[in-house]
């Protein structure tokens, strides 16, 4: 048994044990420490850090207790920030910023701040946060991963590749550098890294989350060199591992659709109270992989439009109401105006809004058009439509960080596309012409004509800057980042045909679900 002579010695022991990978010993000592010194903030601080992955609820309670005893407890701040970031990234960033004011040389705080900020259109409280960790300690792989994420989203591909390669050198046993390099530049994955990962698979030393990441990285690599059979095989492996970890929720998707279709039509509101100032949303909806990221990048180049990215606030409002998904139907105008104001306030806390409009390109908001129309009767809604075979292929080949649980199966993808089509037919019956349908293929063929249609729908004047969308200065953090930054490529429209033989189950499933497909 470890002999504890002081709180400081025990804290150091726990941190060293975690660094060695001995989580059992670290948690055991941390648990003894809080029992022996319940009034010591440092004890609860290190407990929160040690137990974060193992017992999240106990870790969060410990983090709150540590910060109540001493607001400068940085390990507790990290634990709470990780917990808060998905639902309230602004709060998480503010918490980390306070920790960095107290301890500006703490590398893990900079790494976590970058991890939270890079996917969001949120202004950083510090200049170049992605570089702080590697300047303080260039030997930390996670710091270089942060540099890679930030620069990939900003369109700095070469810098991102360099950072991922550096991370791979520092952490040769981790699959994360390989995965992110495979996403950013599959043609730059070192052959020795491919051989090493395949050897680990062959030896049975790769499973679970690591296998999922590695398989998607290998799929991208083999796709880039034109080996479709190998690429599809690795996609099947990666999606199989993801399906074990994140089971699909098709029963829930069916139930929500049915409840929406059976509900009474929403009340028609001619106007709504302006919510939180002049900034107004432009909603961009459609299936993931249909072109929503491309459209947002085009519109955000307009002088009066700010990029909002994939905002979660409509979905949160919908699910906060009793009787989801139809709870908004019973609300009076005052309550709806209050919800609209809360939505805009949430956006303002997350996004810098210098223009009159901002984009909300959460694709799955196609489920919530009824709520959107109740909150913002006059808001422009742009719906992206694309060949279902191309959409299905795009989804199957992408590893979604969160959501889209159906995308690991071609059968479930086909059914979800059919569910999407039923939603859109329903909204178009309720509001004929109220949603602007944009065909991805037509937009690629004639970008200017497509952009003019979208700007007219939003009531905005023509701005030629929209044609220069590949140079947009906002971070593009979705899986489409590389394609969007690469400019228009008409070959992408038919890219799925290289895999037509492998995608035959998708084609049959689409037809079985009544989804029309081209030849």
Automatic annotation (TrEMBL):
Lineage: Bacteria, Pseudomonadati, Pseudomonadota, Alphaproteobacteria, Rhodospirillales
Cytoplasm found in the keyword field: no
InterPro entries: P-loop_NTPase, TPR-like_helical_dom_sf, TPST-like
Organism: Thalassobaculum fulvum
Name the record gives this protein: Sulfotransferase family protein
GO molecular function: protein-tyrosine sulfotransferase activity
Swiss-Prot/TrEMBL keywords: Transferase
Keyword Membrane: no
């Amino acid at each position: 048994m470890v002999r504890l002579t002081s709180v400081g010695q025990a804290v150091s022991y726990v941190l060293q044990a975690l660094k060695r990978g001995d989580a059992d010993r670290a948690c055991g000592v941390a648990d003894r420490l809080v029992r022996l010194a319940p009034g010591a903030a440092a004890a609860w601080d290190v407990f929160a850090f040690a137990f974060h992955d193992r017992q999240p609820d106990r870790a969060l309670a410990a983090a709150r207790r540590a910060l109540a005893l001493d607001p400068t407890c940085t390990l507790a701040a990290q634990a709470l920030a990780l917990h808060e970031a998905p639902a309230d990234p602004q709060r998480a960033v503010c918490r980390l910023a306070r920790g960095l004011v107290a301890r500006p040389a703490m590398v893990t705080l900079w790494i976590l701040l970058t991890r939270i900020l890079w996917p969001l259109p949120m202004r950083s409280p510090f200049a170049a946060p992605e570089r702080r960790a590697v300047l303080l300690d260039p030997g930390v792989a996670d710091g270089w991963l942060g540099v890679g994420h930030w620069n990939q989203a900003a369109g700095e591909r070469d810098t991102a590749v360099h950072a991922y390669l550096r991370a791979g050198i520092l952490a040769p046993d981790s699959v994360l550098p390989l995965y992110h390099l495979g996403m950013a530049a599959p043609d730059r994955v070192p052959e020795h890294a491919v051989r090493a990962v395949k050897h680990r698979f062959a030896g049975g030393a790769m499973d679970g989350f690591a296998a999922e990441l590695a398989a998607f990285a290998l799929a991208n690599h083999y796709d880039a060199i034109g080996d479709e059979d190998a690429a599809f095989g690795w996609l099947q492996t990666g999606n199989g591992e993801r399906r074990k970890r994140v089971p699909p929720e098709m029963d829930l998707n069916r139930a929500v659709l049915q409840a929406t279709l059976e509900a009474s039509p929403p009340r028609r509101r001619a106007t709504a109270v302006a919510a939180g100032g002049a900034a107004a949303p432009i909603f961009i909806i459609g299936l993931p992989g249909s072109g929503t990221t491309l459209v947002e990048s085009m519109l955000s180049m307009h002088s009066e439009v700010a990029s909002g990215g994939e905002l979660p606030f409509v979905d949160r409002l919908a699910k906060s109401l009793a009787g989801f998904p139809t709870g908004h139907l019973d609300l009076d105008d005052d309550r709806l105006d209050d919800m609209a104001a809360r939505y805009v306030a949430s956006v303002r806390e997350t996004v810098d809004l210098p223009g009159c409009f901002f984009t909300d390109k959460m694709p799955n908001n196609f489920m919530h058009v009824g709520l959107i129309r109740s909150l913002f009767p006059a808001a422009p809604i742009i719906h992206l439509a694309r060949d279902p075979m191309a959409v299905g292929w795009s989804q199957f080949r992408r590893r979604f960080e969160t959501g889209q649980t159906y995308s690991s199966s071609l059968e479930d993808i086909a059914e979800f596309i059919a569910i999407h089509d039923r939603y859109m037919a329903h909204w178009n019956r309720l509001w004929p012409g109220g949603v602007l349908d944009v065909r991805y293929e037509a937009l690629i063929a004639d970008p200017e004509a497509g952009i003019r249609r979208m700007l007219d729908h939003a009531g905005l004047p023509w701005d030629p800057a929209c044609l220069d969308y590949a140079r947009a200065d906002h971070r593009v953090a979705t899986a489409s980042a590389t394609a969007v930054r690469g400019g228009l490529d008409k070959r992408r429209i038919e890219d799925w045909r290289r895999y037509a033989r492998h995608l035959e189950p998708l084609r049959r499933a689409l037809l079985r679900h009544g989804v029309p497909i081209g030849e």
